[in-house]
Design brief:
The complex is a heterodimer.
Chain A (H helix, E strand, L loop, with lengths): L4 E13 L5 E13 L3 E5 L6 H8 L7 E6 L2 E2 L5 H11 E4 L11 H12 L3 H14 L15 H13 L5 E5 L7 H16 L3 E6 L2 H4 L4 E6 L2 E7 L10
Parallel strand pairs in A: 3-8, 3-9, 6-7, 7-8
Antiparallel strand pairs in A: 1-2, 1-4, 4-5, 9-10
Helix pairs in contact in A: 3-4, 3-5, 4-5, 5-6
Chain B lengths: L3 H21 L1 H36 L6 E5 L9 H5 L7 H9 L3 E16 L2 E11 L3 H5 L3 E4 L4 H5 L4 E4 L1 H7 L9 E4 L2 E9 L14 E5 H8 L6 E6 L5 H15 L11 E4 H44 L1 H10 L3 H34 L9 H28 L2 H6 L2
Parallel strand pairs in B: 3-8, 5-7
Antiparallel strand pairs in B: 1-9, 1-10, 2-3, 2-6, 2-9, 4-7, 5-8, 6-7
Helix pairs in contact in B: 1-12, 2-10, 2-12, 2-13, 4-9, 10-12, 10-13, 12-13
């Protein structure tokens, strides 16, 4: 059981120094663990600390205090370079604003994590093509982001997130910039990915998006307000 | 520990990014590059000019012969106490034969005396030709080459015959279309039959080369133009002999001749080409130093331009940096990316600069001796690369230090 734990947070606190004596406590001691192949939604109003929590889970930021173990390895005191390595190999990011490189085509965008992982050119091309095929963009390799629709861009981002076979997929409001129909399509894709064994962490403030997850963690004022398994999953009707 | 392949991949990715960024901002890149282009053009032209002057000097200095010693009243260089040299005893023609008998390390010794006289051939005149009285040994002792004819013989020399050998410029001036050999010219009003024409030497030391000279037997010179003259004795160091040893021997012979007791300073100087080379090297060194400083300033300004634009580029691409970091780019990767971009801009500037400077150096060669050797080309490329890396460093460092959370939030 315990070796199934991907993410283990113990009493994570994050303080922001606002200058002078003022200090903002974004997280006031968050403890949670996420298992392999879980589908978790982290919810909360703006200012609740959910973005801070996401940044820490994504190894983009480090906690002020507390323990963070990723696959059993303590990452809370890692330096920049080691964190970069963890982000590269273990975490796949999907952002609200897609965050693709505008001057690069879809293929190169997906290749990028492989470049930073040091994969050979041939492997990169092959894996990137496979990843794009996987998200249904097998015919869009050489399109630049501005030649793709919003849904397609987010698919490229998902392909990029998955190409290094990360331990978690960390999605921050992945449907926030999409209309509801394409948003639903992305959510279906996430369900498929979950079905294939991926661990997904979804950060959102929209209930109907969170309803796709199997577990909902609600954050308020820097603390976990509730953490519940969701039995009756919402199913999407693509009529 | 660093995997070479990984490193190469990073460099390659850096190059791709750099070229994309340059292409995306064509006008800006061109303007930025311009500073480096101007800098490289001025620096390479400076280097080319100095190299050209150096080569011309080497060629000219060879007119003095690298293995010839000149025994004289005055030193060539370092005459800070002219009056003490002025008061030295004059050199005498007889010294030459004495040195010739005594010395074992030199194989040709010739005295020479000088005056300026007009030379005439029919209606043609060469004003102030450098008339040199010397002996038959001069040609060997000075290492000059005869183009046509023969130098005067020992009999002609001893007998003070009215014969002469002329430099290339003298021959060209007096005999523009006819063969000078066997013709009789008037030197300072006296007739001399031309026996030989010297090969043209050219170079920077017009009067010192044989080009503007007329050589006559020293005995004839003394009779016609007066005998109270300062004498220069040229001695050629025998082959295989160390020049310093020969110099020491000459010095000993001269001191004996002059009856100088030990402890008394020399009252003569033994000069050699090396002294000219040294002083010239010092002068060109100073010119080069000042020149490179001034031209280097323009390169420096170009470098500041690069730094400025790289800062702009880093700010504009803050979000891109955030994305790259989120995906796994390390600090070093981002640092390299921007360093490579700055280096590429500068290198392009360097190449364009060379493409402009090279034809300019060929044009300049018509007026001034210039030469653009491969070393200057390579050096200027290296310099532009260096400028790129130096001026790109601070912006690149700033980029590498960006916090991924802040960078991703940047609009």
């Amino acid at each position: 059981m315990s070796n199934n734990v991907v993410i283990n947070l113990q009493q994570i606190k994050k303080m922001y120094d606002m200058g002078g004596a003022e200090e903002v406590q974004a997280l006031r001691g968050v403890s949670l663990s996420i298992l392999k192949n879980e589908y978790v939604a982290i919810m909360g109003p703006s200012g609740s600390g959910k973005s801070t929590l996401m940044n820490i889970i994504g190894c983009l930021d480090t906690p002020t205090s507390g323990l963070y173990e990723f696959n059993g390895i303590n990452v809370s005191e890692m330096n920049d370079n080691s964190l970069a390595k963890v982000r590269n190999k273990e975490i796949g990011f999907v952002f609200q604003t897609f965050n693709l490189l505008a001057r690069s085509d879809a293929l190169h965008n997906v290749e990028l994590p492989l470049i930073y992982a040091g994969a050979s050119s041939a492997d990169r091309k092959r894996l990137a093509r496979e990843a794009l095929d996987h998200v249904g963009l097998g015919d869009r390799f050489h399109h630049k982001p501005n030649e793709l629709s919003g849904g397609q861009r987010q698919r490229v981002a998902v392909a990029r997130a998955l190409v290094n076979r990360p331990s978690i997929l960390l999605a921050d409001e992945p449907t926030g910039n999409l209309d509801s129909k394409t948003g639903d399509e992305i959510m279906i894709l996430f369900e498929e990915l979950h079905g294939q064994g991926n661990t997904i962490i979804l950060v959102t403030h929209e209930e109907y998006i969170a309803d796709h997850a199997h577990r909902i963690i609600r954050i308020r004022d820097g603390m976990i307000e509730s953490d519940e398994k969701v039995g009756n999953r919402k199913t999407i009707n693509i009529a | 520990m660093i995997n070479i392949m990984y490193f190469l991949t990073e460099i390659k990715e850096g190059l791709i990014i750099a070229f994309r960024a340059i292409r995306a901002n064509k006008m800006r890149s061109v303007l930025t590059t311009l500073g480096i282009v101007i800098g490289i053009v001025s620096v390479t032209l400076m280097a080319t000019a100095i190299e050209g002057v150096n080569r011309a000097f080497e060629k000219s200095a060879s007119a003095f012969g690298s293995k010839v010693l000149y025994v004289q009243k005055f030193p060539w260089m370092g005459g800070d106490d002219w009056w003490s040299f002025r008061n030295r005893r004059d050199m005498k023609v007889e010294y030459a034969s004495f040195i010739s008998q005594q010395a074992t390390l030199v194989d040709a010794v010739a005295p020479s005396v000088f005056t300026l006289k007009d030379a005439r051939m029919g209606s043609r005149t060469m004003l102030s030709a450098f008339v040199t009285g010397t002996t038959n040994q001069y040609q060997e002792a000075s290492g000059t080459t005869i183009e046509d004819g023969r130098f005067f013989s020992q009999e002609e020399s001893d007998g003070g015959r009215p014969v002469c050998a002329v430099g290339a410029n003298v021959a060209e001036t007096l005999f523009p279309s006819t063969d000078p050999i066997g013709q009789t010219i008037k030197v300072g009003g006296f007739p001399y039959t031309v026996l030989a024409v010297f090969e043209k030497q050219g170079g920077l030391f017009g009067t010192f080369t044989s080009d503007n000279r007329i050589f006559v037997p020293i005995n004839s010179f003394m009779n016609q133009f007066g005998s109270r003259r300062d004498v220069l004795i040229s001695a050629r160091v025998a082959s295989g002999v160390d020049i310093e040893e020969a110099k020491e021997e000459l010095r000993g012979i001269m001191r004996k001749l002059r009856h100088l007791p030990p402890g008394v300073k020399d009252d003569f100087n033994i000069n050699e080409q090396e002294m000219l080379t040294q002083v010239f090297g010092m002068i060109t060194g100073i010119i080069a130093g000042i020149g490179f400083f001034i031209t280097g300033l323009s390169l420096f300004v170009g470098g500041i331009g690069i730094m400025n634009i790289m800062y702009v580029s880093v700010t504009e691409r803050t979000r891109e940096i955030g994305i790259r970091k989120a995906i796994g780019a390390k600090r070093r990767t981002i640092l390299f990316q921007f360093l490579i971009e700055a280096a590429i801009i500068c290198l392009i500037g360097g190449v364009i600069g060379l493409m402009i400077a090279y034809p300019l150096s060929i044009i300049a060669d018509q007026i001034l001796p210039t030469a653009m050797p491969v070393s200057v080309v390579l050096l200027s490329l290296l310099v532009s690369l260096f400028v790129g890396v130096i001026s790109g460093f601070l912006p690149a460092y700033k980029a590498s230090k960006l916090d991924p959370v802040d960078a991703l939030r940047y609009e």
